[in-house]
Amino acid sequence: MEFDRIVIRYGELSTKGRNRKQFIKTLAHNVKTAISDMPEVKVYGERDRMYLILNGADPTAIEARLRPIFGIQSFSPAIRTELDVEEVKKAAVVLMTELQEPNWTFKVAARRSYRDFPLDTNGINQTIGGHVLNAFPDLKVDVKQPVVKLTIDVRKEGVFLSAKHILGAGGLPVGTSGKAMLMLSGGIDSPVAGYLAMKRGVDVEAVHFHSPPYTSEKAKQKAVDLAATLSKYGGDVRMHVVPFTEIQETIKQQIPESVIMTVTRRMMLRITDQIRQKEQGLAIINGESLGQVASQTLESMTAINAVTATPIIRPVVTMDKNEIIQIAKQIDTYDLSVQPFEDCCTIFTPPSPKTKPKLEKIERYESFVDFEPLIQKAVEETESFVVESSQKQAKTEFADLF
Ligand code: ATP
Ligand code: MG
């Protein structure tokens, strides 16, 4: 007898009434994507719970895949038995054996929705609890703060036993809030912004601006690696790499130095907005944080934002750098972000950009240059591809060794 399934408890989606079906469907899809290299595992999204039937797969490996998936409140590896008291006793001992530790305590928490089972809730607690106590002489009962809570759920389909309650990532399943384009640099902030948007169910596609030969292949790879890390949280991420050299060179030649940065950002936003339209996204996400650098004053944001009416979501706008770094470390993007490769913006940025650019002036400077064909060309030559989840990549590489 061994763990044959994982029971997933839904997060906030339980309260979503009418949209519940869509939420469950999306979550099931995301779970399937995360374990698509384990075809033996079957996923069943029921109204109250989701079940993963393992068919021999290793529950610990799946555990790691489930932890980052948004929309999961908690989950537990479980054993299913027939509606038979002796079977339940056996399963309880198997389960507890795995969790033995010094000074351990436990309690049985039984639930019974199937009324024809021979024992009622109290009966289950006493009979199974007594049997477990006999099997482990060092084990004691603690009903208030047990080390192990042995949950026994009696349903029509069978009895489900579980003891490990693993906290999920919370949030909403990625995809239930629609799609948006994430402006993904190689920095610390934008991956965190992407992660936070994903947490609220946004399906994120990454847009990265690349200016060879001023920026290296490594800088681009860094953005791809960041996207791969993000894909742990929401399935494979689609990525768009925009060739930005010509526009940056034109800006450098034609635009006064003090507003180069503002104009550059406006061009990036215009291009991102066109890609968004093509991909049918609903919003744009960036990693701007108020007051962090010259481009991130309210005056700057106003001048940059003026090129589009599309909603711009700035998940980290009010966070301190330290708060952003803390999240970056938690989500495994920090070490990638601090790799020292030049970003396309840093190269052309003058030492002292205007912190309070005036929109009229910016528009006037831009009016002397025909940016439109350059923008069209950049959009047309954008390279689009899907970045596979880094977890699956690791697994494939490992398999290649044999
Ligand atoms: P980050 O840490 O995300 O790079 P930052 O603090 O360096 O942010 P800026 O360089 O001013 O801030 O960039 C502000 C935002 O503009 C970024 O968070 C990102 O969303 C977007 N951005 C900047 N550079 C690029 C790029 N090369 N490709 C795509 N988006 C970019
Ligand atoms: Mg940056």
Topology:
Layout: E1 5-10, H1 20-34, E2 42-45, E3 49-53, H2 59-66, E4 72-81, H3 85-98, E5 105-112, H4 121-135, E6 140-141, E7 148-155, E8 158-162, E9 166-170, E10 179-183, H5 189-199, E11 203-210, H6 217-234, E12 237-243, H7 245-254, H8 260-279, E13 283-285, H9 298-305, E14 312-313, H10 321-330, H11 334-337, H12 344-348, H13 359-367, H14 372-380, E15 383-387, H15 390-400
Parallel strand pairs: 5-6, 5-7, 10-11, 10-13, 11-12, 13-14
Antiparallel strand pairs: 1-3, 1-4, 2-3, 4-8, 4-9, 7-8, 12-15
Helix pairs in contact: 3-4, 5-6, 7-8, 8-9, 8-14
The structure holds adenosine-5'-triphosphate (ATP) and magnesium ion.
Magnesium ion is lined by residues 185, 187, 343.
Describe the structure in your own words.
- By secondary structure, the protein is an alpha/beta fold.
- It has two domains: 5-167, VC0802-like, CATH 3.30.2130.30; 179-397, Rossmann fold.
- It is 42% helix and 21% strand.
- It has 15 helices and 15 strands.
- Strands 1, 2, 3, 4, 5, 6, 7, 8 and 9 form a nine-stranded mixed β-sheet that branches. A six-stranded mixed β-sheet has the order 14-13-10-11-12-15, sandwiched between helices.
- Residues 395-402 have low confidence and may be disordered.
- Residues 183-185, 187-190, 207-209, 286-288, 292-293, 295-296, 343-345 line the site of adenosine-5'-triphosphate (ATP).
Quick overview:
Its EC number is 2.8.1.4. Keywords: ATP-binding, Cytoplasm, Nucleotide-binding, RNA-binding, Thiamine biosynthesis, Transferase, tRNA-binding. Helices cover 42% and strands 21% of the residues.
